[in-house]
Structures are given as C-alpha cells and as structure tokens.
Amino acid sequence: MKKLNVILDETTIINFGFFKKLIGRYLISSLLVPVIVFSFFIYNYANQNNIFLQSKTFKNISNDSDSPTLMIARIIGENQDGITSAEIISMFSSLDFQRKLSEEIYASGKYEKLIFTGLSSKKIKTLEESLQLCSEDKECITKNIMGMVGGLFSIEQDMAVNKKFILKVKTLDKDTTIFLLSILEKTIQNVRTSSIKHILLQQKSVMQDLSLKKRTELKLQDPLDIEEKNNRLKEQLKQMLDRIQIVQGHYHSKKVELDLTESKLEQTKNTLKKRFSQNEINQSRKAKALDKKIEKLRQDINAIEVSLTNLSKEDKGIINDLKNEMKDAQRELYAIPNYRRLVGSREEFLKQKDVNSNNIGFETKVKRRQFSRIETELKELQDKIGKTSKLQKEYEARIELTKPDLEYIKLLEKKLVQLTLLESTVVSDFVFSKNVTDVSIYKRTSRGKMLLFASFVSFFLLFTVVLVRYLFDTKIYDEYELKKNFENLEVIGNTPDFN
C-alpha cells in the first residue's frame, strides 16, 4: 500500500510526474509494450479483406401526384394508397424479400463465381465452393444464398431529401458488388410491382365474392342474363314488327290481285254459260255479210275513181249505181239492232272466252297459293309478336323487381374491369437514379480506428506493466520514494554520492 501512495496523487489521482520516472526506469519494458501492441494491430489491419462498396439512390413516389399507379387509379376512380418509409425499410429486411432476391440470383445463372462470404470472414470462398453440398438442388442453393446475402446490403433513408433512400452493397469482391446492386434493383422493382398487384388481386377477390353473393341471393346463374334476354327480345320484336308491315303490304296487294282475278274468272264463266238463239246467230251472220259487202263496194268505187281521170257519163253512172247499192246495204245494216257487236263472230268470241277461262283459272290458283302463304306467314308473325311481347313484359317485370340488385352487380362488374385495367398497367413506384457511385474500397476497421485503439491499448498495457514492475520492485531509488514509503521516520542525513 505504501508503494501505491507513491504513485497516487490527491489532485490528479495518478502522479504523472512519478509515472514518467517509472517509464524511464523500466525503459525496455516501456518500449516493448507499444511496439508489440502496434505490431499486432498493424498485422490485423493488413490482413483484413478489402470491402468493395457501391451505392445507388431511389425515390418513393407512391404518394406523389406523378406516380404512375396513382395517375391510373385516379383515371378509373380507384383510391390507391402509397407505401411509407418504415414499410419500405421493413420490406427489404423481410425474409420474403431475401428469398425472392436469392431466387433472382439463382435464375441469373451467374452465381457460381460470386463471393458472398461474410465481411468479417478471413477466408474468401466463391458460391461454387460454398454450395458444393447442394449439387443441383435449387431449394438448397436458394436457402444458402438467402442465408449469406442478408448482411451484404442495406437500405438507409436519406435525411437530406424527403422520400429518398440509399441502397448500399458491400461485398469482398468488386464484380459481386456490381452484380448484386443490379440484381437488387431488379428485385426491388419486381417485389414492389408484385405487392401492388397483390393488393389489387385482394380487392378483385372481394368484389368477386360480393358479386357471387348477390347472384346467389337472386338465384340466377347470371343476374344480367334477364336484361340481356330482354334486350334480345326487344330487337326480335322490332324485326318482327318491321317484317309484319312488309307482309301486310304484300297481303293487301295480293288480296286485291286475287279478288280481281276471281272477278274476271267469274265474268268469263258467266259469259260461257250464256246460249245464243238461231235468230241472233242469223242476224250476226247477216250483219257480217253486209259489212263485208259495204267494204267491197267502197273499195270498188275508190278503185274506179283513182284509175279513171276523166269520167265518162257511163262511168259516172256505174259509180252512182255502186254508191246507191252501198247506201242500201248500209241502211239494211244499220236497221239490225246492235249491229256493231254482231259484226264480230259470236262463235269466235265464245272460243276465245273458253281459252281465256282456262288461263284465268290457272292464274287464280297461283294467286290463291301465294295469298295463302302470305296469310299463313302473317298469322305466324302475329302469334310470335303476341308471345314475344308477353315474354318481354314478364322480363321487364322481373327486371323492375331486381333492378336495385342488378345495378349493384353492374357497379361491381365495372369495378372489376377497372381493377383488371389497373392490374395490367401497374408499374413500380420506386424510381432509381441512373447515376451509380464508383466502387470504393475500404477495410472493415479503418486505419484511424486501428491507431486510436492501438494507442489506447498501448497506454493501458504500459500503465499496467510499469505499475506491476514498480509494485514488485523492492528497491528505493530516491529521497521522494523514501519519504513516501517511510513517512513516520525522520531523515537525519544523506549518504555521500560517489558518482
């Protein structure tokens, strides 16, 4: 304890002045301790593996007005929430993300020569060496990669810029760092896109469940089927009404034609039923003979007058006789009742009527068949229109009863279409910077830290070694130590110094 009183001080705790004397007294030990300590730390610093660092920034625009997802969502009337900074950091630290990252690395086919050894490891091994036991087992490879890759990257929020993040990759190989950063960017974009699609799929699933529930309540396989059938019936009814107008026009025209043909046939039959008397036949023959005689006399008179330029009295007498004879024949013809009709041959008239009767009869049969077909078609159309109109009214009544539910189902179907559109056009709302930092090289423990720590350890060990040496040293080297060790003794003199 007396020796401790020498080295301790009431003011500074340690008597640094006396401690300096001890360092000088035990100079070899004092020099040896820092040399050993610094040599040890220099050796450890030199044997550290180089760490290759590369970083890239990206921005979260999920809640910004220029976010692609939000822009599309607003167009179709869908509210889509973004992702917070805390969710981003937790997403990248999740096991699901690390598994997807390991699957992307495996899918690249370039993982054999990569170095995913831990940053604190002394021995560097490629993945090909680390995964020898897995052979070609994909599950084993991805699990091992998943266990190694987690500590090689980090996500930090940029405190200077809002919604900006820094993606850092640190490995023991330059090529591995560059590769891992690129595959990380791809995986982050894919995971974010999949996450958004998953949310949309969940919303679609809810909409489909609601739609199915409503359809079940209506007890219909498809609630919109009634309205679709009703629309088809309306179209069919319109077509039938247009057709019936055409058929009615044909019906009336064919009816008029048939009536006219039947009237002609009836008149012909009535004419053929009549029988002429012998007197009427004789008068007809007489009228025809007189008409021929008058025509012959007229021709003779004209021939004489034309052929003879200067008529003699004899010629004039002949002409006068012929004219008188023609006048007598005319008077006799005009005296016969209805002479004009009787001039024609009644036998020939009857023969012609008989022929016409056969033609009109055939024409009447044809027109009757045509009219019958049109009449049948008209009746069928009228029946169809009646049935279709009745069925349409039933559908309209059912539509009115189920209209609220149908409107609700329509809204659900519209929402499903909107969600499908949004799902097909969704893109990631993480925007990565095109600029990448250069690959920097550093040690796990920097030179400055090594020197600082070596200095601290050297001082501590130096103090310990000097203190131990002093405590176990039984010699007294000067008056100060003597007074401190023997405070109760009075000094009566000094021994001579023979140096």
Describe, in plain words, how this protein is organized in 3D.
The chain is of the alpha+beta class and 499 residues long. The protein folds into three domains: 2-47 and 463-485, no CATH class; 51-218 and 421-441, no CATH class; 226-410. Helix content is 69%, strand content 7%. The chain contains 16 helices and seven strands. It has helices spanning 2-7, 16-25, 27-46, 68-75, 85-92, 95-108, 127-130, 138-149, 174-218, 225-273, 278-307, 313-334, 339-343, 346-425, 447-472, 479-485; strands at 8-9, 13-14, 51-60, 153-157, 164-171, 430-432, 440-442. Strands 3, 4, 5, 6 and 7 form a five-stranded antiparallel sheet that branches. Strands 1-2 form a two-stranded antiparallel sheet. Helix 3 (27-46) packs antiparallel against helix 15 and helix 10 packs antiparallel against helix 14 (346-425). The longest helix is centred in the last third of the chain and has 80 residues, at 346-425. The radius of gyration is 64 Å and the shape is rod-shaped. The model is unreliable at 342-347 (pLDDT under 50).
